[in-house]
Amino acid sequence: MAGKSKQDEETFRILADAPVNFYSGRISCIRSKLVDLEVEAVLFFDMKNIRYLIGFSGSDGVLLVGESRVVLMVDGRYVTQAKGEARGAEIFEYSDKIDGIVEVMTDSGLQTVGFESVAINFDHCLSLKNRLDGLELRPVSKEIGSLRAIKDQNEIELIKKAVEISSQALISTLELVRPGMSERDIALELEYRMRGEGAEKVSFETIVASGRNAALPHATPGFRKIELGDFVVIDYGAVYGGYHSDETCTFVVGNITDRQREVYGIVKDAHDRAVDSVRAGVACEEVDRIARNHIESAGLGKYFSHGTGHGVGLDVHEAPRISAESDSYLEAGMVITIEPGIYIPDLWGVRIESMVLVEENGCEILAGMPKDLRIL
Amino acid sequence: MAGKSKQDEETFRILADAPVNFYSGRISCIRSKLVDLEVEAVLFFDMKNIRYLIGFSGSDGVLLVGESRVVLMVDGRYVTQAKGEARGAEIFEYSDKIDGIVEVMTDSGLQTVGFESVAINFDHCLSLKNRLDGLELRPVSKEIGSLRAIKDQNEIELIKKAVEISSQALISTLELVRPGMSERDIALELEYRMRGEGAEKVSFETIVASGRNAALPHATPGFRKIELGDFVVIDYGAVYGGYHSDETCTFVVGNITDRQREVYGIVKDAHDRAVDSVRAGVACEEVDRIARNHIESAGLGKYFSHGTGHGVGLDVHEAPRISAESDSYLEAGMVITIEPGIYIPDLWGVRIESMVLVEENGCEILAGMPKDLRIL
């Protein structure tokens, strides 16, 4: 059995089980915002936020955080798990979610409650509003959207472990890559190795895009077989203790043209310049601009068709966004990606992505793969 | 390299590339509903519905289906993929999604447009409504919620192939299972084998729950090692050509108590009775009642904490629901699960799940694992 998990159970428990006071501190942080939000409590629907606030890792439920009560509402499938995992919260079992929320809110005598308006669909929200006679629901997603953006030491350790797992898996997968191997088989081997190294799952569907497929930023690994001279873009990540890694490497197979070498260099320089610009206090849009300006100055701006990066944590994409539309500023403790790319339709593409930890006076590149041009 | 994909590329292409007229038929079906819905067009946000209607398999985008125009709106990451995949649709590139929708709707001169109100979050919906001066948006999710419920022959073939892949993978994984192997390692081997058999991905995070963990209907595979006398619940599935399989087997390891044998038998009978009741025209709640009554009559009703089943297709959970709250009726061509379970907190649990194809006078159990008690 090649896939025997290397993960040390004890290490996992220490890292993944944040001390209870982590959770109570996070709940206190929400409570401290209630006055500014002009609400008596907040209803959370985003399961990652619920996990962050009380430790419950189930895939369905609702959390109410008020001044006096913290109530986790779940259906019958999750009651036992909730009792085992949720810290500092009452457990309330519902058979219908809307009924359950109405009952808990009414019993709590609340009048004005904030809710995660980006984490509930329009229909459910309308049903809920219609049932809550005399109680006002106020959208607060914007105000709490950066709740998890700044990571504490425990979270950073988990992210570093996820990065280590994924890069170890890529190193051993690369030994197999040669012309004739399909994108799907590379993705399969890489995912298997990440799990074998201790990932609880993969961060997202691994992208292995070769040749013309590399011109698709979000390609799905297909049957195409690697050929000599291909760029191969591998975008991959592992989850450890709930925390994600996210990295992209672009390799060349066998031989390389001058044009490929040139474009790789442009993306690498854009990546390096953006990384160099990262420190607390810098506007996210400024980091994006630095990467984008470099690619634009080479006349390839129209081929850089996405933002420069995003926060990573319990979600693989979370606040802050590193893009032209962002109005956020970097703060120490944020973990973000820097991932410029150039995609030339029907020809090929290059993306280079690293995760960095924002510090007061710069950033730490989280250990991962080297980003210098590598010919396989 | 053990994981060399066995999948035959040619077979995959034939099955996965539905003929163009499949898509045009599906678009016609939406158009035929416009009058009843009292709208001129429908905005789709659910990526599975978008894939179903035009074949685009990207993970972000919006589709407008009107009497005269079918427009797929995507951002820069997906333009090349959209041009390659989308059948019978114009491609419109946006940099901001809301801006893009507003532009396309305004240019089309529409006045009343239906939208998938369960597939857009409250914030986005509000932003969109605020930007659409004089244009009315009308929620139509309920009316089109069963769009994909009845499968055509091509879809059924893909589902059968997904079932075959996943059960083949389980058969070979079971050869490895013995006391001392961890839940995580069983899940890892099973997922690797599904991918090796040709799955493009797994349907959902595989559940391997042993001993006390088997009492959690939605357990995450952990470090617990299999022990003699354990029930091991394995809930797993593969995706092929976009279509999912979903099956649950419960095994016993080594030896079994009388009480375990009895409870397994109750769940198995509930499963069999529900399967026997499936045919076109039967109410979904009736199928649920048949399984539930059997478990209740054994005095264990409170330990059956979820619905009896659900439709399966491009999503692993889709219409119809087989539960006490369902107001749907079975129709020929639906593919549903039947999955009763009994979960005794802190002791153990049993779930048995099969996929069945609804027919006029009964149903076809889609090939999978036998469901008689098996001692590993």
Describe this structure in words.
The structure is a homodimer of 376-residue chains. By secondary structure, chain A is α+β, with helices and mostly antiparallel strands. The first copy, chain A, has two domains: 131 residues, Creatinase/prolidase N-terminal domain (Creatine Amidinohydrolase, Chain A, domain 1, 3-Layer(aba) Sandwich); 213 residues, Creatine Amidinohydrolase (Alpha-Beta Complex), CATH 3.90.230. In chain A, 36% of the residues lie in helices and 21% in strands. Chain A has eleven helices and 19 strands. Chain A has a six-stranded mixed β-sheet with strand order 4-3-2-1-5-6, with helices on both faces. In chain A, α8 crosses α9 and α10 runs antiparallel to α11. Chain A is elongated and about 70 Å long. The N terminus of chain A is likely disordered. At the A-B interface, α4, α6 and α9 of A face α4, α6 and α9 of B.
Summary tags:
3-stranded antiparallel sheet, 376 residues, homodimer, 36% helix, 2 domains, alpha+beta, 6-stranded mixed sheet, disordered N terminus, 11 helices
